[in-house]
Write a structure and sequence with these properties.
Strand 4 and strand 5 form a beta hairpin. The chain is built from six helices and seven strands. By secondary structure, the protein is an alpha+beta fold. It has a single domain, classed as Beta Polymerase, domain 2 (2-Layer Sandwich). It starts with 13 loop residues before the first helix and ends with a helix.
Length: about 170
């Protein structure tokens, strides 16, 4: 999953990122390709990790503290128009998706992933607590990953769907 030595090498040390979130007590679900890979889906590694956090005021404050300790900075939008977030975390809700980069690589925070209008509260009901490289994380159910990729409909999502369908069928087979 990467060693975090150079965030520009398009590799991500997901373990370091989620370890920091865990250290701060952030409640979140890992979604997207990393969630599928954690469940042994045979898809190519991705350059970032996607997360859906709980949106309570307390959790957003913990998330903000973790982002600060990670040294996270926004990786999209021109400098003059970049939204910012405050220490309390309340401004994090001003956007549906945040694209960050830190010394451990790229990661996205998505409050309402495609197909999941209620975000964390919807995903957490079927999520699985897993140990990935010695770090405990809550991972979105494979069916939810598939639903989100179907609903997003982006080319990169559509490319991996056949492999995810086969993996799901083999698991239930």
């Amino acid at each position: 999953m990467g060693d975090g030595s150079d965030a520009n090498d398009h590799d991500v040390d997901a373990t370091a990122i989620v370890s920091m979130l865990n250290k701060h007590g952030v409640k979140y679900v890992v979604i997207g390709a990393f969630a599928a890979i954690a469940q042994q889906a045979p898809i190519p590694p991705t350059r970032d990790i996607d997360l859906t956090p709980e949106t309570t005021k307390e959790n957003l404050a913990r998330l903000s503290a973790a982002l600060k300790e990670l040294g996270a900075r926004l990786r999209t939008a021109p400098e003059r128009s970049r939204p910012t977030f405050d220490e309390a975390g309340s401004s994090l809700r001003s956007a549906n998706v945040w694209h960050f980069i830190c010394r451990y690589g790229e990661f996205d925070i998505s409050f309402r992933p495609a197909g999941f209008e209620r975000g964390f509260t919807q995903l957490v009901t079927r999520a699985h607590r897993m140990r990935v490289q010695s770090v405990e994380v809550l991972v979105a159910d494979l069916d939810d990953v598939i639903t989100s990729k179907e609903m997003a409909g982006r080319a990169k999502d559509l490319r991996v769907l056949p492999a995810l369908y086969r993996h799901r069928a083999a698991r239930h087979g």
